[in-house]
Design goal:
This protein is mainly alpha-helical. It has a domain of about 100 residues. The protein has seven helices and two strands. The chain has a two-stranded antiparallel ribbon. Helix 1 runs antiparallel to helix 2. The longest helix is centred in the N-terminal third of the chain and has 22 residues. The chain is globular, with a radius of gyration of 16 Å. About 5% of the residues are buried.
């Protein structure tokens, strides 16, 4: 059963899950292993979540609304619109380290056998196949 989220619902769910990740990271410590991401510790996860230039969620929202405009010139324009250092943005996109992180994310998802596309949400190490509406997510997160 496919569920269509509004942008507001999507962002609310991401804010809640981000807060939960932050709480779990604090409780586990930076050296703790992340069972859903082979080879990762909490430090890797926090870096990934914060990503480049502290504008991850702003860029996420722009891309969410512009899914049909993702050419190189579009992406550079979005970076400029957000006030990013476009030269650093270009370096990051061409970076071997960033490419390796993306490859590691993809490989980890494929190795799990559970990631069939994006987005894929894991809750307590188990893939969530339910709805993405707030009541469904809250029910999945309930103890």
């Amino acid at each position: 059963m496919a569920t269509q989220l509004s942008l507001e619902q999507h962002l609310e769910a991401l804010v809640r899950s981000g807060a939960a990740v932050g709480e779990a990271a604090t409780a586990a410590g930076l050296e703790a292993k992340v069972p859903t991401c082979a080879g990762w510790d909490v430090t890797d996860l926090v870096v990934h979540q914060g990503m480049v230039q502290d504008r991850f969620w702003d860029m996420h929202e722009l891309l969410f609304h512009r899914q049909q405009a993702l050419e190189d010139s579009d992406l550079r324009g979005y970076a400029a619109q957000l006030g990013l250092d476009v030269a650093a943005f270009d370096r990051d996109r061409a970076s071997t380290a960033v490419a390796e992180r993306i490859r590691r994310d993809v490989d980890s998802g494929l190795a799990s056998g559970q990631v069939l596309g994006a987005p894929t949400l894991f809750i307590d190490g188990v893939v969530h196949r339910g709805g993405y509406d707030p009541p469904a997510l809250l029910a999945a997160l309930a103890p």
